[in-house]
Amino acid sequence: MNNKKIIKASFFHSxxxxxxxxxxxxxxxxxxxxxxxxxxxxxxxxxxxxxxxHSKDNNFFDxxxxxxxxxxxxLHIHAPQWPQAGLALDDELSYWLNNFTFPLESKYxxxxxxxxxxxxxxxxxLANGTTSxxxxxxxxxxxxxxxxxxxxxxxxxxxxxxxxxxxxxxxPDFYRDNSTKEAIDNTExxxxxxxxxxxxxxxxxxxxxxxxxxxxxxxxxxxxLGKLAKKYNCYIQSHCSESDWEHNFVIExxxxxxxxxxxxxxxxxxxxxxxxxxxxNSEDADIFKKQKSSVCHCPISNSYFAxxxxxxxxxxxxxxxICLGTDISGGFSPSLYDNIKHTVMASRMLNDGVDNKxxxxxxxxxxxxxxxxxxxxxxxxxxxxxxxxxxxxFKEGYICDFQVIDINSPSNxxxxxxxxxxxxxxxxxxxxxxxxxxxxxVWVQGKxxxxxx
Length: 453
Ligand SMILES: [Zn+2]
Description:
The structure is a single chain. By secondary structure, the protein is an alpha/beta fold. It has 2 domains: about 5-70 and about 395-450, Urease, subunit C, domain 1, CATH 2.30.40; about 70-385, Metal-dependent hydrolases (TIM Barrel, Alpha-Beta Barrel). It has helices spanning about 45-55, 95-105, 110-125, 140-155, 180-200, 220-230, 245-255, 260-265, 280-290, 300-305, 310-315, 335-350, 360-365, 370-380, 380-385, 425-435, and strands spanning about 5-15, 20-30, 35-40, 60-70, 70-80, 130-135, 155-160, 165, 205-210, 235-240, 270-275, 295, 320-325, 400-405, 440-445, 445-450. The strands form 2 sheets. Strands 5, 6, 7, 8, 9, 10, 11, 12 and 13 form a 9-stranded parallel sheet that branches. A 7-stranded mixed sheet has the order 3-2-1-4-14-15-16. Helix 9 links the parallel strand 11 (about 270-275) and strand 12 (about 295). Helix 3 packs parallel to helix 4, helix 4 runs parallel beside helix 5 (about 180-200) and helix 8 runs parallel beside helix 9 (about 280-290). Bound molecules: zinc ion. Zinc ion binds near residues 78, 239, 327 and 330.
């Protein structure tokens, strides 16, 4: 049983894209169900009275000079690829897939192997401040259900999908669904198994319908998965217009773009999180908006496999909801901190251009810069919006997930020698310079689930 709690600390969050709020030494009241019941700021008139009344309580947690950030929300991870993170990124995509990725993913029929890798990955993500995570598993039901159980037992909020890849002409014989029917039956069984598991999981665990991407699935599989999404009101994840090859392949096969094809099969809903979206145009973005679907930006992975920089700001201005993902192992890092930084840096290259032979006026795209605070929004509030869950903000009615940052951690002490530093400078330093060493505790749904000594 979880108790009510009162948390006193200094919190950063981003309720609005680009805006940062600093709640200095605020009191956050958390109900027994892990939901924030009220937030009292230092300048609220009853602050001192409440502080005095509760500061000796057993359930009063004073984080003193540590800084609290919302738990990060990583919405694109290939869990089985964790063993090859950082490998073969200098190779072509087809070589990477056929010589590394598919042989590795095929190993997850071995449940012991799955358990070992998935436990390590979930622990690593939590240690990096990721409290909600959306995962591709493999084609194997048992191993993927094991991943859901591991998220549940370590306290992470997991969104987990059994991968569907049933097209015999597009997938290797050693790693694909045996038939369309088997792929769909196994997906339905997986949904039911995770829903059963979820009954006893305090922070929630959710099944996700997971066509690998349009090229790896038959029309019939896509159609049936769309029906399952409707029947069970499930989350859906896939890739959308990721690279030149994938984007053009879908246009050649259907005479339509990825977003139109996904929409036609019922795979774009308000619970859809589509990775990458590097080649979506403004009509595609309108389809996403209409269906309230989200794009998961994976900036590190995009640098290796996407052939373009995703224009975050342009599409954000159009009203597209965008969240952030590591895309392990197309992206090498398990840290959304690294992806926040890379979001900013990639946007600067898109803005200024990269070819020094071009005149400065013709080199870049202009108006593409993403600030570090905007990238922080994508990793927190944007993720909550994609999941349609009250996550990422310290506000009444929101779920209480957070990470506790010690900027004076002996193994990675952040420099603090300037006079007159503003509050926002502290957050900039944390986002750019901190490592998992600075994350001392992680809480999910109002419960401490990780503490580093
Ligand atoms: Zn991916």
